[in-house]
Design brief:
Length: 295
């Protein structure tokens, strides 16, 4: 009887009318029109009973969690049941749906900016994130940053759009992990001919491997000699700006995920939300003292 009552409550909750409370992370009609077609193609529903779940509300709940950093059980009651939202999140993580959404949106934004859908240049970098009690798999200590947790390796195009994300233990050296990251990049596309990176990827053997294996050029952008303080480095500032954009999603303030694949999905969610806002000209204006910037 208890199981039946719980099932009835879940069904009644999913059949409730539209929410009266909207959140800044919610998809607009224009944004949903774009992303719904991508989800339909990435996760087609062809067998079984007709789907009754509202995918727009499920995606709104995922973006709310990604933006605010709240635990699954703390999702507001006016979203679908957190167990249902978590089911779709895990399903789309396993299927790579979040990466497919990010890829399609990146291509659309590049077309909007009168660029080719796929880039010919890319920038690579990593970011160490502190672990939590939940991060039990693939965790290590980054001796350089003095952080116990995981590293987020990303490759972006020349306008800062995320192409590839790979999460691994923080104790793996950048130069060693980069081979896996670049292999993942070229398994998705073959148009990249130039990759910029920082001094952590220095090494003739690595550069020759990229050239021989993928016919790509790796250029290490080093700091200027005798330069003091902060200064902008060519190309490298683009990927650093992307990390700053992603950092506005509080779920990424630390690594709260048990599975590294889930960590990658959270990065793709934050990236896709930013891409949607740029495509539909729905960017949030932040005011900081006498200046303004969009994200």
């Amino acid at each position: 009887k208890n199981t039946y009552d719980a099932f009835c409550r879940l069904i009644m909750k999913n059949d409730t009318p539209a929410r009266s409370t909207n959140y800044p992370s919610d998809l607009t009609d224009a944004e949903w029109e774009i992303v719904s077609s991508i989800i339909t193609e990435a996760d087609p529903y062809t067998t079984g009973r007709p789907r009754t779940s509202d995918l727009r509300e499920i995606l709104n709940a995922i973006y709310y969690l990604n933006k605010t950093g709240c635990p699954w059980r703390y999702l507001p009651n006016n979203f679908p049941d957190y167990k249902l939202v978590n089911y779709y999140y895990n399903k789309w993580t396993r299927q790579g749906t979040f990466e497919k959404i990010n890829t399609a949106l990146r291509q659309e934004l590049r077309l909007k900016k009168s660029r080719n859908p796929e880039p010919s240049g890319a920038i690579m970098d990593s970011q160490s994130a502190k672990g939590t009690p939940e991060t039990v798999a693939e965790i290590g200590f980054d001796g350089g940053k003095l952080i116990k947790g995981r590293k987020r390796h990303i490759i972006v195009d020349t306008i800062g759009c995320v192409i590839i994300v790979m999460v691994h233990a923080a104790n793996i050296f950048d130069g060693k992990a980069a081979r896996r990251v670049i292999q993942k990049l070229f398994s998705r596309l073959d148009t990249v001919k130039k990759i910029w990176a920082d001094g952590g990827y220095t090494g003739q053997a690595f550069s020759e491997w990229v050239k021989e294996r993928f016919d790509g050029d790796l250029e290490v952008v080093k700091k200027k000699k005798r330069a003091k303080g902060f200064h902008v480095l060519p190309r490298r500032w683009v990927v650093e700006r992307t990390f700053a954009w992603l950092g506005r999603s509080r779920r990424l303030s630390k690594d709260y995920e048990r599975n590294p694949l889930s960590s990658e999905s959270q990065v793709y969610c934050a990236s896709a939300r930013l891409l949607l806002r740029q495509i539909t000209d729905n960017q949030i204006q932040y005011k900081l003292s006498n200046c303004e910037f969009s994200a």
